[in-house]
Fold each of these.
Amino acid sequence: MARRGSSGRWLDRQAKDVYVRRSKQDNYRARSAYKLKDLNSKYKIIRRGSKVVELGAAPGGWSQVVSEVIGKQGCLIALDVLECDPLNSVQFIRGDCSSHAVREQLLEKLGGARVDVVLSDMAPNISGIALKDEAASIHLAEVAADFCGDYLKRDGTLVLKLFDYPDTIEFIKNLKTLFSEVIRTKPTASRAESREFYVVARGFVI
Ligand SMILES: C[S@@+](CC[C@H](N)C(=O)[O-])C[C@H]1O[C@@H](n2cnc3c(N)ncnc32)[C@H](O)[C@@H]1O
């Protein structure tokens, strides 16, 4: 039998994955759409009319889910270093979320207003070197928490992707000083073998 490389194994896994099949049927750009759907049905994070900033939005699966929920009265500004095909009613900023230029563009689009929800599904490129990957993932989590200080309303909600590394515990401890409730959760569409999990942090204390 021919040996399968890592790309072959990835293709096999994609072909068998129920969420990949569902995302094709439902016209979502990524299987990750079901992670946010699951989080939102459990925790009622996004509602009709919500104002939302999304970090790490490409290829746009979460953005599709958010725009379905918020309707015409809502607002979604989505950011990513990668290009993202346009979506109706989503304003997109391309660039690194930790850069000053991106923050300035966001500030301008928001006109100084704060939002109800900050979402971050940002993930670093995995190198396989544990210490490096841990530092990169904590850095992105800190960037997202920092966005809350500048753009999230008092009592607002942060949804954040994290990875299970030793320093993540300390990060969550710090997050608890900024939010009245911090829930650790793993949506059903998040692969069991992945270190990934999410926190839903509610009741932002400015
Ligand atoms: C898992 S994907 C997001 C998938 C998205 N939630 C969806 O449903 O389509 C993670 C994204 O984070 C982005 N990202 C990583 N670091 C970033 C940074 N510093 N600034 C902006 N985006 C970043 C990557 O480019 C990638 O598109």
Note: Residues 5 and 11 are 10 Å apart (CA to CA).
Amino acid sequence: MKNRNSFTSCLSPRQIMELDACTQCGECLRNCPVQEVTGNPSISPPEKIRIFREFIRATEGVKARLFGAGDIDRTLLEDFTKAVYECTTCGACGQDCSVGIFTQRLWPMLRNEMVRRGLGPLGAQANMPEAVRNTGNPYSRAAAERFAPWRPDIRIAARSDIAYYAGCTGAYEAQPMARGDVLVLDAIGEPFTMLSAEEEVCCGFPLFITGQHDMLGDLVRRLVCAYQGKGIKTLLCSCPCCVNFMTRDWRPFYGGPLPFRVRHITQFVADALGRGRIAVKKELKERVIYHDPCYLSRGVGIIEEPRIVLRSIPGIELLEFSRHGMNSRCCGAGGAARKVFHENAVAIGRLTIDEAVDKKADKLILGCPACYAKVNEAMQGNEKQIRIVDIMELFAAALR
Ligand code: SF4
Ligand code: SF4
């Protein structure tokens, strides 16, 4: 694609208005985790928006309409591409934005535009479509390894109203989390089904977030049809990225309303606690601190349910990070940036670890497989150390 072609064809009317609405006030700079660890001004939201507006002006502005589109310098395009991929898409800037720009979706769509121009994605992110095509997951791991290493011997129904989707990152990179999920579902006692390891393919989020959209329609339709075949009414997931993408974006890729609803596992467990389907009797005298995943809190507004689950454990003392809920700080792994900007991700992850240790927590509780994998990596070689536990891993242990 030539640099002179439109830069707005991937954007919704709302996103075009958002780009126009930015006042360059800089309110959003306060909580950007990447700026915090790199000090790099080019990744700042107003700077990305300012440059993208220049691209639009050069190709679709008044001068371009009168005299033809101008060419855009390749180095400028490459620098912009790096900046938009170095961002973790955590959305903290959108939370602070004085005009309400929904940055958690604007940045991925700007990435999509750069992919269409052959400038993105970056590094290992480019291998993901082929990996998903060949193996069903972005890690190129065998389907035979998807459930076997962690799934305990529990009853999985052939058909049910409820299905559990483990997700690729949970199944391959955060197995204590996926194991905790199914143990808790089993303890609740309502029958649930799962697809086979071959049928349960990637939900599409890693491709979406890196701007590689070509396969998404096929992937989404394949999964929705497979779950439809099992007669489900509710699909449960614990990965915030899966829940976020399924609830916000699956519908257009599927081509209509989904034939079931998607819920996060903490919503289901909080309901089960409220209905008396499950209760923890064992006391756990520990101080724990819970990290809100960006795609769960800012992404879909699930903030209270994980806390209901944690507070249901007798004896537990729940601490809070200085930034929590809608203002939580990214773990560093978001937006597939961890695949390329490893050092940023480790530095950001260590800010979370250090604060948890400074607050004298016994355990750092996570609720996202990407956070789980990256924060565990960030712990290696870090001066301050703390035990990392997934929320369902902890709850399943308390139930035992
Ligand atoms: S989404 Fe997060 S990492 Fe990206 S610019 Fe905004 S605050 Fe920074
Ligand atoms: S807070 Fe919003 S309007 Fe202000 S610079 Fe940031 S993105 Fe632009």
Note: The pocket of iron/sulfur cluster (ligand 1) is lined by residues 32-34, 43, 45, 87-93, 103, 107, 330 (CB under 6 Å).
